[in-house]
Design a protein that fits this description.
Elements: H1 7-21, H2 26-52
């Protein structure tokens, strides 16, 4: 069956992308993809920082007992 990404596969993929999107749209698509990946990376960094933060018991919220409605 062979390798999935041989050099001629990549060339064929590049030609197909150029035909579908055109030469003028490719820089815009690359810029949008880069900004999206950068935002995703920053979002993941924020999530991992929150998870790795030590829990402080003095700031922990204690749940209030539910009041019964009559």
């Amino acid at each position: 069956m062979g390798d999935l990404f041989q050099p001629w596969h990549l060339v064929l993929l590049a030609v197909l992308v150029i035909v579908l999107f055109g030469g003028k749209k490719l820089p815009e698509l690359g810029k949008g993809l880069g900004e999206g990946l950068r935002g995703f990376k920053e979002g993941m960094k924020g999530v991992t920082e929150e998870v790795n933060k030590p829990a402080d018991a003095s700031h922990a919220a204690t749940p209030k007992p539910e009041e019964s409605v009559k």
